[in-house]
Every structure is written in C-alpha cells, then in structure tokens.
C-alpha cells in the first residue's frame, strides 16, 4: 500500500508499505479516504523529528471499515467512519478515572503506531465513529482537531453573552472562533498576522478581527473593541512565543485564558503580563488532546452532531487536496514558507 513514512527532521518519504493485519479481536482495519496535515505534524517535521523513525505519519483521517475483529460490535465492514487517533493504555489511574488526557502512555497513531497517511490504518474499534449519511469524508477528517478545541472549551465558563479573543487563525483558531459562537458568545475577536486567515475567520463567525501592527499594539486595539474591559475568555491557538505572552493581557478581571497551542521554545513573561494574571485574578487553563469519558468522549460526539446539523463548517478551511505522493513536497514547501496552506487533505487511493 502507499504511505508517507517519517524518518527524521525534514525527511518524509513516499513509500510502499505492508498493509496492516488484524492481531486482536477488537480491532478494525480502515481503508483511508482522507487524511489531514495537523499543525503538530508540521512542527514535528521541522523541529522535533519522529518518535519512531520510519513509522507511517499522520493522525487526522476518515475512511471505510475494511475488516473487523470478531468482538467488534459498534461498526461493520463497509461503514463510513471517522477516527479518534488517541490510544490510551486503559490501565493507569488516570484511565480508570476517565481522565484519559492525563494517561502517561497516551499516544496518537502516527507517533509510535502506524498512522493515517496510508491506504490502510488500524485502530481499536472503540476509536471509530460511524458517520451520518450527510457528513462527508472530507468533513470527517477534521473531526479530531474540532474535538481538540471542544476539549478545551468544555473546561471553561464560556456561555451565551460572553466575549472571546482568539489568538491565531490556523485550523484550531478557526474552529475556536466557530465553537465560541456556537456556545453563544456575543463577540468573538480573531487575531492573526495573516490577512487571508483573518478574512476566513470573519466568514466562519468572528465578529471582529485584529491584524497586529508595529504602530498600534494589539492590546490597545482589543481594549478599544471591548470598551476597555477586555474579554471573558482569551484563547491561545497559535503556539507562538509572542502570543503565549500577549494572551494574558486580553481577559477582564476574573477572566480566563485557555492554551490550545503548543510553543516549541521557552516562554518568558514580561512583568506587565505576569501582573495581569495576578491583578486580574485570571484563571489559566491548559488543554491536552481531545478525549474524555465515555471514550472517545463528548468532544467527538458533539462535533458529529453539529456537522450533521450543518452548524459546524469545516470545508471552507480546506485549502489543498493532494495525493499522498505529494506529501514530501508539500511538507517542505509549507515549512520553508514557499507555500501558504490552511488545511491540507490527502486524497488517499486516488
């Protein structure tokens, strides 16, 4: 089968790999239809390298059940499905309590186990969700990143009438803008350095946009848009050093900060930003992964429901549809700045 294997920093190869085989009676083999490049995939490609050199990369995918083990009851061969890529151990105290995100052995496919950038992949049956007839494979490939956003928002006090600022308008940030409005936020402010991303944020629900400038601080612009109050919830979705600091200036007294992005460098807080945490009595939350109890969690089932009802829009975020063989080229182009992309989907098997 065709696959993209990750060997080292900047080294992804299009190869032929052996098709997976059922080894346990609770597993399913999936014929992958679409698989998306995650921002974390780009960071690992450029900065960190693979956990297992030569492993099949990728974790955001959808497809069709090709084979099912003898004890599988939730899906049948031929079912259209989305994949929850998180693999929990099920044995630790965190797993036994339903706090799967804290599992010390939690992994996603594409890390140490073969991932979704391939003709076929294999996961436990509990990791797949049947798709409603009106939800496409393309939309389903973005269910996991949507669930990442929901996992964080479910921990906050966000409710109708609140105000939200979203720092970073990549896939996670755009989904955060949408979900904030679906939660009933009165005003959502999207912040990014890319004009095209900001325009897409407006199309997907942001009420106001801010493009940082050297002459006027983002903080002053945000205060102007919120009558000098700040917002109830500030979301860091860029994973940059700068926004990981600036996000603390956005909330009002008693407000919240939610970190969805992951910076890959040390963060140093200027006194102004640290004092905002203390003087504003902020609640600062980190959010990791996308799963909860009952596994895979309400993050995935809620996303499916809102896709089915047409309330969540993921297709406008897809900028590229490519065959797997273009994988090495597109990774190099995006990380080198030679090509701009929002969400890249591989059309597998075409």
TrEMBL record:
Coiled coil: none annotated. It comes from the Bacteria. SMART domains: PKS_ER (SM00829). This is Galactitol-1-phosphate 5-dehydrogenase. Residues 8-346 form the Enoyl reductase (ER) domain. Keywords: Metal-binding, Oxidoreductase, Zinc. Belongs to the zinc-containing alcohol dehydrogenase family. One of its GO terms (molecular function) is zinc ion binding. Its cofactor is Zn(2+). Pfam families: ADH_N, ADH_zinc_N.
